[in-house]
Structures are given as structure tokens and as C-alpha cells.
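During the reporting period the student researcher (J.K.) took over the structure-prediction task from the postdoctoral fellow and processed the backlog of single-chain submissions. One of the processed entries is reproduced below for the supervisory committee.
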Amino acid sequence: MIARLFRQEVVHLHGVPRSLTSDHDMKFDLVLPQAEFAYNRLPNRTMKKSSFDVLNGRNPSTPLNLAGLPVLHYYSSDGEDETEMIKDLHAQVKQQITK
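J.K. obtained the following C-alpha cells:
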């Protein structure tokens, strides 16, 4: 059915395409990560915060800021404080979504 519709609507009016472009083409592999990064930095209408903000407590300025940090095998009170900040942030986002 789709092939018939394509033939009727596209080939009939424009002829057979000389090349096909797919979103799986290498051209798109270079652009999509940048677009996804930019999209995830935008504030969501419901949450009033970006996805990065909600997950990490901050909005990275470049994709390099997303690089994983080394795993530390010792206790850090700073880490505990940051964990509490993220928990509070998630509670605020949950309230915003409910509102």
C-alpha cells in the first residue's frame, strides 16, 4: 500500500528519485548528538528545568562536561551534600509536575 501511494504521489509527479536519504546516514550521525544535547539543555515546560538539570543538578555548557568522573572509593561529605541537593531538586520537580 505504501509503495503504491509513493508511486502515485511522488514518482508520478517527480519521477524516480536519483538518491535516497535516510536518517541512518552518516550525515545525520554528526548532527543528531548535537541536537540531542541542545534539546536536553532546554527547560521543560512542565518541570521548568532541563533534563540535565534534573538528572545532574546542573546544565553542562558543552558535551565534554558530560564525560564521566573517576569513581572514588572514599567517603565525601561534599558528595552527600550534593546527593541531598539532587533529592531536593527532584522533590521540587515532582511538585512542579503535579501542579
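The committee noted the following: The helical segments are 2-14, 26-41, 51-56, 77-98.
J.K. will present the remaining backlog at the next meeting.
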